[in-house]
Amino acid sequence: MNGRSRAAVIDCLQYCNYSEEIFRDLRAGGVDAIHTTISYHEDFRETVDNIGRWNRWFETYPDLIFAGRTAADVRRAQAEGRTAVFFGLQNCSPIEDDIGLVEVLHTLGVRFMQLSYNNQSLLATGCYEANDPGITRMGREVIAEMNRVGMVIDMSHSATRSTLEAIELSRRPIAVTHANLHEWHPVPRNKPVEVLKALAETGGMLGFSLYPHHLKDGSDCRLDSFCAMVARAAEIMGVANIGIGSDLCQNQPDDVVQWMRRGKWTKEPQTERAAFPRQPEWFRSNRDFGKVAAGLAGVGFAQADIDAVMGENWLRFFEHSFTPGEESGAPSAIPLAAQGRG
What we know:
The protein has eleven helices and nine strands. It is an alpha/beta fold. It has one domain (10-327): Metal-dependent hydrolases (TIM Barrel, Alpha-Beta Barrel). Strands 1, 2, 3, 4, 5 and 6 form a six-stranded parallel sheet that branches. Strands 7-8-9 form a three-stranded parallel sheet. β5, α5 and β6 (152-154) form a beta-alpha-beta unit. α8 (223-237) crosses α10 (289-298) and α10 (289-298) crosses α11. The radius of gyration is 18 Å and the shape is globular.
């Protein structure tokens, strides 16, 4: 589809085993932009190799995908019938212990970085640690540097105190790109109400995850249950501060789960075979975003609010987040009391 005849559709977190098949799924699903993970536990050199692989895909499939750098690239993707791909890091491993690599990675196209991935990092505490001392000294410096260059602070896998401190310390709104409400499905990865409110009060964004471990009833989660959870989040945060971050891992082999969870940090043998869970039947691939939009209509969202959740909110957030120099100003300055779903 060419031209701007519809609202943007943006998925703000994926980690698929990409191929021509998935790139065509993106187009069939009308997905204008994705934030894709290019690193979990990789160091800087390994991350550069992953960027190089994406650059080859951009060269091979120019009619389907291209490298996203600014919010304007989303509108360009819509006009050209392609998908803009924005890079992100699910851990701070790629900057090693060198704050200068933040700017280098931004120059290479990285637009998101999580400060921790489940464990304690040099910057913050992950959600599976027993104790959360909050943002470290280096973490404070890196937050300021990310603000300066235009890289989004992502706290999806971080613990509560670290997340709240990151929100407070950052001069720009931050994101939780892929998580759900802890009250709906109480697992460590999902976020409590205090985090949701702090995000909204500062113009931050929450992206809803469709990964079964984050869903009530797992792989058997019903679409109406998921959409009712989105409606509850809208009541807490306001419609302007929510979007989709599916955490789709389409076609990834099961041995990748061990890499995601264990990286290089442990020698303990794996006690059980790790495997990717089955996706719910209503969201199996990038072709299924229309089903999510229909589900939101089914629980009472107006069309303008569906458009906001499916991509327009992320697009506004991108406009204020990816360029250097802007250190203050929330992309969503709509008072929560003035927001609604009607």
